[in-house]
Amino acid sequence: MLLGPGSVSNFLLDIIGIQTKIFAAISPAMAETPALMYTLAIVLTVLAFSVIVLRFYARYKKAGFSWDDYMVLPAMVFTIGTAIGMVIGE
Predict the structure, then answer these.
(1) How far apart are CA 87 and CA 71, in angstroms?
(2) Where are the domains of the chain?
(3) Mean pLDDT by groups of 10 residues along the chain of 90 residues
(4) Which residues contact 34 (CB under 8 A, 6 or more apart)?
(5) How far is the CA of 81 from the CAs of 42, 53, 84, 88, in angstroms?
(6) For 62, which DSSP code?
(7) What DSSP state is assigned to residue 35?
(8) Number of H helices and number of E strands within the chain?
(9) How many Cα atoms within 13 Å fall on the side-chain side of residue 67?
């Protein structure tokens, strides 16, 4: 069976709906405590940034940089933007 464009978008919407239901079921406290959301946004962003810095340090010392190392940078920019949106958007 071949998937058409409509079925792919419906599939993606189903996945998003399932993720939303799972998130709502496992973290009802998140909606009640914005401080927890702020803390998670900041802590996980700092953790991700730290891992990226360590990755670049290790690559600098040993193997050299590759294209996948540079692809981490836009991902980190989006992660920081998401964290900022979570903190100021509430």
Answers:
(1) 25
(2) 1-27, 33-88
(3) 52 59 60 74 88 89 85 90 81
(4) 90
(5) 11, 18, 5, 11
(6) T
(7) H
(8) 4, 0
(9) 0
Distance, CA of 21 to CA of 39 (rounded, Å) = 22
Tell the residue number behind the tokens 């962003």, with chain if given.
Answer: 45
Contact 36, 29 (CB under 8 A): yes
| Contact indicator for 76, 48 with CB cutoff of 8 Å | yes
Separation of alpha carbons 47 and 85, rounded Å: 18
Give residue-wise pLDDT tens across range 1-10: 445 555 555 6
> At which residue do the structure tokens 């599939």 appear?
11
Instruction: Write down the pLDDT at residue 13.
Output: 56
Question: From CA 1, how far away is CA 72, in angstroms rounded?
Answer: 36
Distances from the Cα of 15 to the Cαs of 4, 26, 31, 58, in angstroms? 17, 17, 21, 36
